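Please describe our next protein:
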Amino acid sequence: MKICVSASTNSLEAPVDPRFGRCPYFMIVDSETLQFEAVPNMASGAMSGAGIQAAQTIASRGVKVLITGNVGPNAFQALSAAGIKIVTGVSGTVRDVIERYKRGELKETGAPTVGGHFGMGAGRGRGQGQRRWRP
């Protein structure tokens, strides 16, 4: 079974990134062999729609389970529509969370864990920069 983990770097020893739609990498791991594919998240810098684009990326690779820190409402809906089980609230390394999932220690979530635009970080926003007062 293919499991995707949102990751900070491209190895099994990478920390889980708490942001699904804006993580740097998707680690797609075969749960039986631990063979993996590190997929750069091309949506991480998107101004909007990162969660939906990220969901489409992993769905197109046949992922059955997503393990991440948090997932927003749009990504949650897209992942659910694709039949992907979602596990949130995890931390540790990619290898660690895969093993914990296989042992039944991680449970599927039934709802988004953050609001929209989570994880956009400094320097990004919704176009509401400083406004100058003019008489």
